Amino acid sequence: MAEVTNVSEYEAIAREKLPKMVYDYYASGAEDQWTLAENTRAFSRILFRPRILIDVSKIDMTANVLGFKISMPIMIAPTAMQKMAHPHGECATARAASAAGTIMILSSWSTSSVEEVASTGPGIRFFQLSVYKDRHVVERLVRRVERAGFKAIALTVDAQRLGRRESDIKNRFTLPPHLTLKNFEGLELGKMDKVENSGLASYVAGQIDRTLSWKDVKWLQSITVLPILMKGVLTAEDTRIAIQNKIAGIIVSNHGARQLDYVPSTIMVLEEVVKAAQGRVPIFLDGGVRRGTDVFKALALGASGIFIGRSVVFSLAADGEVGVRKVLQRLRDEFELTMALSGCRSLSEITRDHIITRWDAPR
Ligand code: FNR
């Protein structure tokens, strides 16, 4: 097999290896998938203004996220059901993340439990939370997450209802019978039976609390001391409300284009959110990051770090833990090279002046 020279190549390998139903579940976006294409395309409308004759023999990529020092500002977004990609699933991802010295966010909808992931060894891990109608389920989950040593909660706020992913509907997507949503084992939520016609969408719709509002954020803050990141903010308005509600940080995300189609790419709205935050909380981004140059562009627009989703599940499918390690290493190498060629020796040297945005450029 020819050497994989960039992160995107893992998608083709995963497509070959995975059953169609699984590949489609990982790859797809909502409805027309306009936002899905836009998430990656928008990065190509940002160009560099590199500075020259700066000694770049030493590059420091270390980042600080909620007080935790990590090796680079490249982290792992929560993606559900990773054992469909590889038998070691989330545990392989967790090992790869800690080997790379970076943070992994574990999905609530994982096929390995929080305890299993914690038992893979040391590592800085956050937990992605969705709020279910039964608050006892949520509270018990939060307690387990705290006990397992997770350091923060990423509260998903863009998925009270699931976006329509048409390939999942066509494929009648269902979790393969040998797998379960481990965090809910023993609870009603743990078993996902085949649901007629609309597959996963109907199932989740029945469990997630559609009444979720700002008062529930207060409730969550009252039951845990863990810092809470808000995942799924796309506007200045919500950024300001989130900060009033004492949120620890924001992840600018459109859920990998799987929820509301025709929202802008995350990289296009990042600066709006950064400006509204006025440096009061860190702003992160996920969606469409496939290159080290993308990471640099997000940081130049004010992000404190980025998260990757699909690149992790595709590399996991291709080569398990080794695949995920390679993806993290590739992005790291590309990001380092981008810093060097732009004349930046540390993250704090990456500024808005290092890029030009050409949002109105022809597509
Ligand atoms: C996701 N995402 C997601 N988000 C979340 O809050 N909880 C979850 O369980 C999941 N599950 C999930 C599964 C799959 C297969 C994908 C592709 C995405 C969204 C994810 O955290 C992140 O926002 C995007 O994946 C980032 O975009 P890229 O890197 O995939 O382009």
TrEMBL record:
GO terms for molecular function: (S)-2-hydroxy-acid oxidase activity; FMN binding. GO terms for cellular component: peroxisome. Its cofactor is FMN. It is found in: Peroxisome. The active site is at H255. Transmembrane segments: none annotated. Belongs to the FMN-dependent alpha-hydroxy acid dehydrogenase family. This is (S)-2-hydroxy-acid oxidase. The lineage of its organism: Eukaryota, Viridiplantae, Streptophyta, Embryophyta, Tracheophyta.
